[in-house]
Write a structure and sequence with these properties.
The protein has two domains: 75 residues, Orthogonal Bundle (Arc Repressor Mutant, subunit A); 77 residues, Glutaredoxin (3-Layer(aba) Sandwich). The protein is α+β, with helices and mostly antiparallel strands and 171 residues long. A five-stranded mixed sheet has the order 2-3-1-4-5, covered by helices on one side. The longest helix has 12 residues. The termini are far apart. Helix 4 crosses helix 5. It is elongated and about 50 Å long.
Length: 171
């Protein structure tokens, strides 16, 4: 018999998560676009993330039930994609591109300026829960390197001097 600890209770208890009815409807609508329901997995995760800001543990099983696949398959997709957040994040997520192009054109200075201005490092969220700072391997904005993304907005080239004005636009 498994001993009950706070962590196992959270994982086992996560089966009680209930999808918002509109989210389940949206997932089923998305599934209709594919021959295989699991093809809608990324979109299903994004639907939950739009509602909560991240994908809670219990949502994995709920999504799996809607899609008719195992929770391990959903978890595998959720942990593979860097834009699916498996823990709470700030109201705005700042992704700093560290691809070769960005690295060669000022990534270090940009990252250090963000760390200094926000008072956090990668993987952390500001005390006011306004920003979470994360690395990303490529934003596909090599012509605008160094680049960063705040929520769904891509900026580049960005210099440290540009940061106060950019961040101000995200209350």
């Amino acid at each position: 018999m498994m001993a009950t600890t706070p962590q196992t209770t959270r994982i086992i208890g996560s089966d009680g998560f209930e999808l918002h009815p509109a989210d389940e409807t949206a997932m089923r609508k998305e599934m209709a676009h594919y021959e295989q329901p699991q093809a809608a997995c990324i979109e299903a995760l994004k639907i939950v993330q739009r509602r909560y800001g991240w994908v809670p543990d219990g949502a994995i099983g709920a999504i799996a039930r809607v899609l008719g696949i195992g929770p391990a398959a959903v978890e595998g997709v959720a942990t593979f994609y860097s834009l699916i957040f498996r823990q709470p994040v700030g109201r705005h997520v700042v992704l700093v591109c560290d691809s070769s192009s960005c690295f060669l054109t000022g990534f270090d200075e940009l990252k250090q300026a963000l760390v200094s201005q926000l008072g956090i490092d990668y993987g952390q969220t500001t005390e006011d829960a306004r920003f979470t700072l994360l690395p990303v391997c490529c934003l596909g904005a090599c012509d605008g390197a160094p680049a960063l993304m705040i929520d769904d907005d891509t900026y580049g080239p960005v210099s440290p001097d540009d940061l106060p004005g950019l961040l101000e636009g995200y209350p």
